[in-house]
Amino acid sequence: MAVIGKDIDQAIHFLNRGELVAVPTETVYGLGGNALNPETVLKIFKVKERPSFDPLIVHIGQKEQLSSFVLEVTPKARLLAERFWPGPLTLLLQKREMIPDIVTSGLKTVGIRLPDHPLTLALLNRLDYPLAAPSANPFGYVSPTTADHVNDQMGSKISYILDGGACPVGIESTIIGFENDDPVVHRLGGKTVESIEAVVGPVRVLQQSSSRPSAPGMLQSHYAPGKQVLIGSWSDYRDKLQTDRTVMIRFRKPESGFPHDRQFILSSAGNLSEAAKNLFAALRLYDTMPVDFIIAEPVPEEGLGRAINDRLRRAAAG
Ligand code: TXA
Ligand code: MG
After folding, report:
1. In this structure, which residue's CA is closest to atom 24 in ligand 1?
2. Is residue 105 in contact with ligand 1, taking CB distance under 6 Å?
3. 18 CA distance to ligand 1 middle (Å)
4. Which of 34, 185, 198, 225 is the least crowded, having the fewest Cβ atoms under 10 Å away?
5. Is the sign of the CA dihedral 140, 38, 4, 86 positive or negative?
6. What is the pLDDT along the chain (318 residues), one digit of tens a residue?
7. Which residues make up the environment of ion ligand 2, defined by Cβ < 5 Å?
């Protein structure tokens, strides 16, 4: 099993040898490796069992590094980086040649972000290279938000897990691309569309078709636990499902008429940030229990709620 610890020197030791280290970010844990070393990046794809056509995000430790890795920082990209980095926002920009093609799956753009986690920022600022890091889960599964989540599934395949505690945002970064400098959201995430629009004006949110995703993270079925996820309330399914093979994930209140000890409340205060933080842990918890069905209640479709509902829909399509 991997060693779990808070030792940045250990992490650097393994990374400098071309090995992989799981790193905490504010969104989810990443499976990190030297982004400029194609052999290391290949290891990331292998360990994650990720198809080679699904590009990786590159993590930097300073805003100023952005222009070293991309050909041009367009005006709106610059505004967003200035306003929201470090934070849960990934920018897709034309890559420079030094970014190996394997990182971007042959695409001309590279996804870059400056994560907001003290341990990983300290690590990045001591490395001579940026870190390519997808979420540290097997391809298609729910992202990890604690070091134990990472260890459960990836522990036997990596050397070290840098333990930064539970991820405070709990849902992956928002991914933004640009068409003639017009921002386009490729993946809803931890930075809300409303907050982005307040800085750069109206943005388009890509509606994904399962047949032609712009990125496999946008596949209709993704972020899925092993159990069947159904969207709705108990009354939608009570005629078809047995109570003792079913659990529920609810936003703020338990559903009456269903055993309360089989319901996970994401935020009893009705707070969407708290709900996002708890979502993946709830899915993982119920995945380990002897149940067949997880009924998930959609949250309000606003702010972080849009990203939460997006992940619920994808989990349900799994
Ligand atoms: O919050 C996050 O973004 C986390 C933490 C670890 O930073 N990372 C993460 O990585 O969620 P991953 O690999 O699980 O998801 C990244 C998504 C994938 O769906 C990938 O297809 C998309 O980003 N992506 C990466 N580069 C892209 C590009 N050049 N064009 C379009 N999509 C891209
Ligand atoms: Mg992922």
Report:
1. 55
2. no
3. 21
4. 198
5. negative
6. 899 999 999 999 999 999 999 999 999 999 999 999 999 999 999 999 999 999 999 999 999 999 999 999 999 999 999 999 999 999 999 999 999 999 999 999 999 999 999 999 999 999 999 999 999 999 999 999 999 999 999 999 999 999 999 999 999 999 999 999 999 999 999 999 999 999 999 999 998 644 445 555 555 566 677 799 999 999 999 999 998 999 999 999 999 999 999 999 999 999 999 999 999 999 999 999 999 999 999 999 999 999 999 999 999 997
7. 135
Distance CA 120, CA 32 (A): 10
In the block, residue with structure tokens 């306003």: 83
User: For a pocket test of ligand 1, which of 105, 123, 175 has the largest count of ligand atoms closer than 8 A to its C-beta?
Assistant: 175
For tokens 């067949």, the residue is 292
Q: Which of 90, 117, 162 is the best mutation target for the ligand 1 pocket, counting ligand atoms within 8 Å of the beta carbon and taking the most? A: 90
Which residue type, as a one-letter code, is found at position 22?
A: A
Residue for token pair 């400056």: 114
